[in-house]
Amino acid sequence: MSTDSSWITTRFAIDLARPRVMGIVNVTPDSFSDGGRHARTDSAIAHCERLRAQGADILDIGGESTRPGSRPPSEAEERSRVMPVLRHALGLGVPVSVDTRHAALMREALELGADIINDVHGLRGEGVEQAVSEHPRAGLCVMHMRGEPATMQDAPAYADVVAEVSEFLAQRAARLQSLGVSAGRIVLDPGIGFGKTLEHNIALHQGIPQLLRLGFPVLVGWSNKSALGTITGKPVHERLAASVAAALNAAQRGARVLRVHDVAATVDALKTWQALEIEPARPAGHDTKSDNSP
Ligand code: HH2
Predict the structure, then answer these.
(1) pLDDT tens for residues 58-110?
(2) CA distances from residue 243 to 20, 214, 223 in whole angstroms, order as listed
(3) CA of 66 to the centre of ligand 1 (A)
(4) Angle, vertex CA 117, rays to CA 174 and CA 170, nearest 5
(5) Residue 34's closest CA among 263, 193, 205?
(6) What angle do CA 52, 192, 14 make, to 5 degrees?
(7) Could you confirm whether 225 is annotated as catalytic?
(8) Regarding beta strands 186-189 and 139-143, do their DSSP bridges make them parallel or antiparallel, or are they unpaired?
(9) Are 241 and 248 in contact, with CB atoms under 8 Å apart?
């Protein structure tokens, strides 16, 4: 993947020359870090507007928590959480993603104009391939998960986590392309915390350059996750600094979309990091003080 690539979505080609921030909008009562805060339509809409104002490049709206032990809503309930918020978010001038594993909601969201489908199940669910192939102009985020949310953290084991996740993502990307989705619409995600120990998450994070060799941009979501609690010893509501550090390090390793709860802090951190990365023009062996040229 060239560094000047973009993610082509329904309405926007998202320029990935610099890392982009995907702001999380969980319209759920039970998400692991912000459950209940934006569960009502009006507060979720206000959250979309706040994240947009803070500089989110993408809004990711979800109506089902993947937290182990959370009660899956009925598809009708998930739909009633997501659709009114999506309808409003589509008017905010940024690409909008829908985080779901259900084909019917994907189809309805895409018919309304959603820009991206983000599926933690890697677009493998019943009817999902059919739904996305009917809307080949949408952007897709394909995430790796080992097992199912309820049991995925029960002693996950891999012989070589980076090779296995990479192989899975490559196969899913090839399959989507065979269904008519062009490569420029696909982004891959190693799925931090989804059937992985801390060591697996770190190996995948350090393996971002290897994942990039598959030829697709990489999205990473460390925000507030339990692995950061293991590293810092902090509870979920005290993981802002850890989340920002992980996001920056992912960007440094080549990740181009960072899925975060705390958009303002991540945007500031990225701006500062980028400003510090830019080398001032300093021609070698040339005294600029005595030089009148422009
Ligand atoms: N993580 C979560 C949900 N969706 N999508 C992608 N592509 N990558 C991720 O890492 C990812 C994701 C879990 O985080 P959150 O949405 O905050 O929690 P919950 O699933 O409990 O709503």
Answers:
(1) 999 999 999 877 789 999 999 999 999 999 999 999 999 999 999 999 999 99
(2) 15, 26, 5
(3) 7
(4) 20
(5) 263
(6) 35
(7) yes
(8) parallel
(9) no
SS3 state at 62: strand
Q: Are 137 and 110 in contact (CB under 8 A)?
A: no
Q: What is the largest CA-CA distance in the chain?
A: 73
Mean pLDDT of the chain: 93
Q: What are phi and psi of 3, to 5 degrees?
A: -70, -15
| Catalytic member of 259, 271, 282, 289 | 259
* Residue 102 to residue 46: CA distance in whole angstroms: 25
Position of tokens 């993981």? Answer: 239
| pLDDT tens digits, 201-250 | 999 999 999 999 999 999 999 999 999 999 999 999 999 999 999 999 99
User: Would you place residue 293 in the very low, low, confident or very high pLDDT band (cuts 50, 70, 90)?
Assistant: low
Cα(273)–Cα(45) distance, integer angstroms: 30
Strand partners, 58: 22
Write out pLDDT tens, residues 141-170: 999 999 887 777 787 889 999 999 999 999
Give dist(CA 111, CA 97) in Å, integer. 13
52 Rama class: left (phi>0) / alpha (psi -120 to 50) / beta: alpha
* Residue 1, C-beta contacts closer than 8 angstroms, at least 6 positions apart: 212, 215, 216, 217
With b for 16 or more beta-carbon neighbours within 10 A and e for fewer, the 194-211 pattern comes to bbbbeebbebbbebbebb
Q: Is 259 a catalytic residue?
A: yes
Q: How many angstroms separate the CA atoms of 115 and 90, rounded?
A: 9
Q: Print burial letters for 173-192: b (CB count within 10 Å at least 16), e (below 16).
A: beebeeeebeeebbbbbbbb
Cα(35) to centroid(ligand 1), Å: 12
Instruction: Exactly one of 101, 185, 225, 256 is catalytic; name it.
Output: 225
